[in-house]
What we know:
Two copies of one chain form a homodimer.
Chain A: E1 4-7, H1 8-19, E2 33-39, E3 42-48, E4 52-59, E5 61-62, E6 66-71, H2 72-81, E7 86-91, E8 97-101, E9 104-108, E10 110-111, E11 128-131, H3 132-142, E12 157-165, E13 168-176, E14 180-187, E15 199-202, H4 203-215, E16 221-226, E17 230-235, E18 238-243, H5 252-255, E19 262-267, H6 268-278, E20 288-294, E21 297-304, E22 308-315, E23 323-328, H7 329-337, E24 343-348, E25 355-359, E26 369-373
Antiparallel strand pairs in A: 1-5, 1-7, 2-3, 2-6, 3-4, 4-18, 6-10, 7-8, 8-9, 11-16, 12-13, 12-15, 13-14, 14-26, 16-17, 17-18, 19-24, 20-21, 20-23, 21-22, 24-25, 25-26
Helix pairs in contact in A: 1-2, 3-4, 6-7
Amino acid sequence: MMNFEIDKREFLRALGLVQSVAGRKTTLPILSHMLLEWEENSLYLTGTDLETGIREEIVAKIHQKGNASVSAKKLYEIVRELPEETIHIKKKDNQWITLQCGKSVFNLAGLDPEEFPSFPTYQEENFSTVSTRLIREMIEKTSFAASNEESRYHLNGILLAQIKQGGKETLRMVATDGHRLSLLDRENQKIRGIDEKGMIIPKKGVLEVKKIIGDRDGEEEMGIYFNTTHGFFKMGKSLTAIRLIDGEFPEYEQVIPKGNDQKIVMLKERIVSSLKRVSTMASERVEGVKFSIKKNSVEMSSTHQDFGDAQEEVEVVYEGIPLQVGFNARYLIEALNVIDTEEVLMELKDEGSPGILRPSSSTPGLSNQICIIMPMRL
Amino acid sequence: MMNFEIDKREFLRALGLVQSVAGRKTTLPILSHMLLEWEENSLYLTGTDLETGIREEIVAKIHQKGNASVSAKKLYEIVRELPEETIHIKKKDNQWITLQCGKSVFNLAGLDPEEFPSFPTYQEENFSTVSTRLIREMIEKTSFAASNEESRYHLNGILLAQIKQGGKETLRMVATDGHRLSLLDRENQKIRGIDEKGMIIPKKGVLEVKKIIGDRDGEEEMGIYFNTTHGFFKMGKSLTAIRLIDGEFPEYEQVIPKGNDQKIVMLKERIVSSLKRVSTMASERVEGVKFSIKKNSVEMSSTHQDFGDAQEEVEVVYEGIPLQVGFNARYLIEALNVIDTEEVLMELKDEGSPGILRPSSSTPGLSNQICIIMPMRL
Lengths: 378, 378
């Protein structure tokens, strides 16, 4: 007698999302597992790396309530190869499960599901509703600037804060790795649990949320809620809980340079393609490109100790003083890629000061997107 | 004054092919370079890893004859980013070249082109003509069975031999890694330089030929010619020279089992998908799946020491004695994937003997394709 039946296609989709967090940490065997819980008309799948937890609910035909814990990777591999038929699952006495589909029978080793880490608790009624498109845009335009280095834990996160700007409730995301910073403001009604100081969400978890949004392009709204330890993101029947980073986010407002009054207006696509060319001759380690700026012209140049050198001149709109400043080409390209306008404004002060990139159409003073890049000596 | 002008798109295509062999060996700096030679109306690009050499000819507008040697990777990276315009190149006095395109100028470090390894010599008139489709098919259906282990140098090659079969000139390719063997015969007129004993071509070079054929799907014929040290493959204006392996190919005809009279007819797609499922529970190291064969049925099963077990029964046509035999699942799947017929014939003898796979429609005795797989104890 089987415990429940489930459609292969739906099962596989949910397994794909949940297995991506399972098995990242190998400190405990159970973390490579997935928790299956079935009752009433639903199967719940849960995976966690103790930082990000994902729970998916799928419609299932339940004959007898129960739960199990099996290898997430193995279950995913098996279901991926199954024909598009109904899958029958039975829990055995030794914690194992039997999975049967068509003429295939699998016995999967299990662990005691009681050992599986408990999912962070939350109150259903606390969720605020927000546009999935908005959240995805904010993640895409900031997360690239967060650090990937495990050792710089406080810079691995993305700040999400709720501020008032021009009297309007505004959601703000900020990320920085110490060499560059990306900040985006978007008008949005207040989300419960977030204040002006903000919460720091780990980059990995944020990218997981982006992946789940991408997978559910039909959903136009999602639920978000924060308590003091976790952020919760609900899309359809998918729930992601991310443990917040307990630390101080850098004082980013002090980093934003004031008095960068040398303003260059440039065509984004043209600058990006020139940077890609000139940076082929930048050294692999520092990736530096030198900007020599004069009236209505930017000359970019680079030199590689083994391979040679490159230079290219681009027309821009610039009326300021002649300036020379070096930047990391990749940081510039990544920042330019998240600015949507055809024209981009670059604001400089001198060769030793950070540069600002922003959409050229942004309202002065009330900037809703800025990228800051530290200069480098070349 | 520039030395020559060339179209970006054509240059990039040729660079892509040539740079794939350059830089594989890092023993000599010049091997990471590409040789450029320009005269009359052509630019010749040459790259080599001392085993496989590729030379491409492209139409160019030459102002002054010359040659140069520059980093293959760097030149490819630069040209890839250039706009679709004419590229102007000038050789400088210090072996460097200046490359100019649109508003970009690059100076690339060069080495003395005289140091570049010379391309193996060949006689234009010695080439035999053969169908590119035939050569690609033969490479695809045999090369997977050659060894990738550098230490087993004599098994890294693919044998190409010219035999007579039923009175007809036949081209034969054979590859084996000691655990499995794939042999394919195709009727074809005699190719100059190949005899019954055959030549051993390194797998890497053969795959390079396949790549160049793939890139030139329009070309229906290619030239092939062998001397005692090299094989030459000419497609359009692309020439590949491969240094042959100087060694003894295994006596493959002795490996082909005689008296495998337990014959199973099975549907290829069904067996492949069952194998993919059942092998999810095979151990990662040996990848073994057990076949339990009885009248009109094959049951496949596997056991993994950590994850559990799997079994599946498939209907086949079989009238022989009950048999149990173990095989490496991946070897079986790779062999089945190169058999084009819907039905496949598996020929077995007993649990300790190699199995044969072949298209079920092949003429008995005059087999034109066979795959042999060693059994394993499970």
